[in-house]
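writing this on my phone so excuse typos. first protein, seq and then structure
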Amino acid sequence: MIAYEPPHRLVLSWNPTREQDRPRTEVEVTFTDEGGKTLVELEHRGWERLGEHASEARQGYADGWKSVLEGYAEKASE
């Protein structure tokens, strides 16, 4: 974990591949109170650390994070 500042944000080191020896990216999740509701924003950065594999890995996560966040939103609204 890089930063943990409840209830506002969380930043963690993330391995976007199955290969353990690859460089890691960073995922930052922020939580903002918006009048009784919480805005959750996710930024996944540091792709340039992956060199020639950056574009392929980033595209996979562009699709993947969307479904993860949609599932989170569904559970949060129950």
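second protein below, same order as before
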Amino acid sequence: MTSLASQSLRIDVAHTWDGAAVGADERVGLELTLGADPWQLRVEAPYHSDPAPPEPAGSRDRLWELEVVELFLLGAGERYLEVELGPHGHYLVLELDGVRRVQRQGVAIEYRAAIQGGRWTGRARLPAELLPPGLRAWNAYAIHGQGAARRYLAAHAVRGAAPDFHRLECFAPLPRS
């Protein structure tokens, strides 16, 4: 992608990780707005009442082990950004260069979440410097449940025998503005 001028992308996480459609009660919506500094990410998702982390809201390692929505943004080569947002105000931002090769983590961002009834919303503002150079592709995921009831959802299915959200070849190209 050569220009990020005021581009907005609506993302629907409406499938299991391997491509089966899910019901409306599990679907997650994200809206990514690029072109400004900071750029914005909004989440609207069902709240599955998974336990909250014991720490106060803020950056939290291993957030993927809890109820979470994730956005991956792929740039040139294998540089990508992973943004994880939870319903209780926790988040995790990872910069990677190569599959699962974390270059930086614990990046502070502005993030607020609210739970209302059976749904939650989250709004994140992230500095433009976090976007990987040559931004070109993306995928989004949602995880909820515990034990055998754990569910892994994806906007674009990932191939393989088990959920692996770091399969960069399964990302969708960003639309050109």
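Residues 8-156 form a domain with the Immunoglobulin-like fold (CATH 2.60.40.1190). thats all i got for now
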